[in-house]
Amino acid sequence: MRKNSLGFIIIIWIIMLTGCSFGNSANSYHKTGMKYFEKGEYSKAVENLKEAVKLNQGKAEYFIDYGFGLVKTGQVDEALAEFDKAILNKNNKVVRENNKKAYRGKGVAYYEGGEYENAIVEFSKALEIKEEDKLNQDLMYYIASSYEKSGNYKDALNQYEKILDEFKPNAGIYELIARTNYHLGEFEKAIESYDKALEFDKDVYEYYFEKYAIFNKMGEVEAGKKVLSKAAQIKAKSKENDFNGAKLLFLSGDYEKAAVKFNESLEDGFNLANYYLGEIYRIEEDYDLAIQYYKEYLNKESDIQISLVYNQLAACLIANENYEEALGFLNMGIKQNDSSTLKELLYNQVIAYENLSSFKEAYGTAEKYLKLYPDDKEMMREFEFIKTRVTESKSSKEK
């Protein structure tokens, strides 16, 4: 009996030391979870990574990977808690490496949640740690993008230029500098940067499209047409280029041919074609069809980060007098905290509230709008009208 008892105690002791359960080990769950993560099956990844963390509370790597899984499934607050568990107040190389990854994880969580100021704080903490310097470029890009998304284009430009100074130049960084200059109203500088991007790769349709948009903004229609003509000379054949050819037709205003080509791209698996078909029918004021295509795009896009889509869809719903549903999509767009579309989203939110006779909500949104965009005279007039309706509502209640 003593011998058997001793053997049982040894088995229990081995299990405790190795962190294993009678089923899978923590390491096994972690490996399985990461395989699911790499395949984009994030819910299954989270299930397995959660088990790994339960079985072994001593590995920062497990907390970090579980945190990223939670970010991918939209559980930002839970992810932040897991990254915090990985951060230790110890001064050795391994801990500093893990801390850097965990701070980066917190930054990504805040970034995905639209909390860009907090994201910058965490990315900056990670950047201060000397270890894992291979992450530095990625961190700098995230900081720049956080500034850009929060509307701080000047600091975004400074950060992008710092990346250009510290790392090997490429077409992508020039595109980002161009885009930021565009937001700053520096159109000539933006065009120069797109030209530099095209020096690296002259077969990227997007650079031509964005350059075309700037010329249009400047009112230089002929210059814009020349840019589209150059884009049309791209000879590489692929399904992606067919899709870009459809975009070329769309920008040229040939909506009928563009619609045919976008439908062909849908068959090739290009979900973004649904968005452009929505745009075509919105422009043509066929709002039912536009709504159908926008919704199809959103249904097939699991990680949608384009607040513009929510705004366009909401605008069509407003045109169809479906104000309640429009508000739902406007709120989704506003939640992304993207400064490039916030103005349109808030404006449409005011309109939707007004048409629902929700004047108190319309008043609050209009007030917020005017704090951000005080020179908008049209909204000033709208605000004064809303104010009278709120006052009338208060008076009738007092009676």
Automatic annotation (TrEMBL):
Keyword tRNA-binding: no
One Pfam family hit: TPR_8
Keyword Cell division: no
SUPFAM superfamilies linked to this entry: HCP-like (SSF81901), TPR-like (SSF48452)
Keywords of the record: TPR repeat
Cross-referenced Gene3D superfamilies: Tetratricopeptide repeat domain
Per-repeat ranges for TPR: 26-59, 100-133, 137-170, 171-204, 271-304
InterPro entries named among the record's database cross-references: TPR-like_helical_dom_sf, TPR_rpt
PANTHER family membership: CELL DIVISION CYCLE 16,23,27 (PTHR12558), CELL DIVISION CYCLE PROTEIN 27 HOMOLOG (PTHR12558:SF13)
Entry protein name: Tetratricopeptide repeat protein
Lineage, uppermost ranks: Bacteria, Bacillati, Bacillota, Clostridia, Lachnospirales
